[in-house]
Known about the structure:
30% strand, single chain, alpha+beta, globular, 6-stranded mixed beta sheet
Amino acid sequence: MHLRYIAMLAIVAAANAQNTVDAPFQVRYAANTGVGESYINIVNDGANGAPLLGPGLGDPTGNICVNVFAFAPDQQLMSCCSCLVTPNALVNLGVTRDLLSNPLTPVTPVSVVVKLVATLAGPGGGGISCTNSAALVATATKVPGMLAWGTSNHSPPNGSVGYQMTETAFTPAILSQGELDSMAYRCGFMIGNGGGYGICRSCRAGALGAARR
Length: 213
């Protein structure tokens, strides 16, 4: 009985470890983008360190690259990009503005699956650029420290007219090496195709939220 109890505790601990809120890999969907923008808000919680005297004073540390992948419902990768997020910073992406504004695929759906992978920006998080980081995500160092929320447009309950914007956290998930390799390879093809295809437009300071559902 004692050994079974220890085994149960180990299973629970492993499950909790896989579902930490700042997991390196997180997933969410955005629906009904045709009726309004969906936003992604990302925070670096400082799990990898932070400058001793604050930003701009001394060498940077603890920076992460949040690598963003947008998938159509039929599994096609539509766009990919990266945001540099410094410790305790908050950045914002728009799904339509940044992820769907220049897709490589011929059709832009109104619902997408968004996957985020957090990697260390340079040794010790001292890097200050995440250019093409999403295409190199398979070999980069995955780290905790990313917190992310997203808004989505839903049909209101009780048959009311119009849509409601709600905000919920991204869901931590387990990422297989095969999926990671596929994401990186397809992203690299998009970036290498030229013409700006598959490259997200911007990461902006601040956030835009909504009532939680």
